[in-house]
Amino acid sequence: MKLTYLGTNTLLIKKTGSMIMVDPHFTRPGLLQLLGKISPDPHAIATGLSQYGIDHLDGVLLTHTHYDHALDAAEVLRQAGGALYGCKSAQNLVNARLSIRVSPGSVYPVGSFQVIFHPSRHLPFPTLAKWVLPQKGKIAQPLVPPAWFWRYQSGRVSAIQIERTLIFGSAGFEPGAYHNLEIEHVVLGIGGLDIKPKSYLQRLYKETVLLSGAKNVYLSHWDNFFQPAGMRLSPHFLARRTIKRVKQLGAHHGQSVHLLKYGETISI
User: Fold this and answer.
1) Is the pLDDT of residue 160 over 70?
2) pTM for the whole thing?
3) Is 205 within 8 Å of 249 (Cβ atoms)?
4) Which of 113, 15, 129, 17 is nearest to 66 (CA)?
């Protein structure tokens, strides 16, 4: 398989003629735009899809439904085809016939991929942030943009297993859920980890990397997603410190830790 990183937690994965995308986020509204209602930007999405030769998709997979993971899902499907795989909240973002509601532990064939959704959790927010963007909560009714960003509540959070790769859109975990999955690669979204103590990172690393058996760790969701996408993405807040800490854990425990760069394609 080939994985290409497109910023935030947007991952394009290719294999023998099939293409799937995880957590598409091309629109990337700025902080000031979040003071009003937000909508997908069809031009930004079309540009991103064209730039990487995405003329069709077999599926769009969502780890959860916060706006920086789910805002663009419906428009990506409209432009590139495929079906949306996710929780009940994800179903309320698109036409029902385009969505497949997933159950934890079940195997879903998506093109030539075998996909399993495992239970996970969102990174715990500080109290003030919980009020603005709840880490829990559902999109209970069809959500049609433009909409306030906080309407994109998380829904059920999943870690997505694609073959022997396990993808976390948020730096949270379900204790004991990934033990002995025979995972080779972990894609770990580190957004917000800079606000957590080192002890939390150590628990996260143990659960998602050590217990799953992974040998390679790829860091995503490290960039400032309030800025446009491009080759010169800048880290968000204190991400450099978090990146350094994760690399230290990898060196200590024997895993390769790699920071995904925009437009970079790796073999997994």
Assistant:
1) yes
2) 0.96
3) yes
4) 129
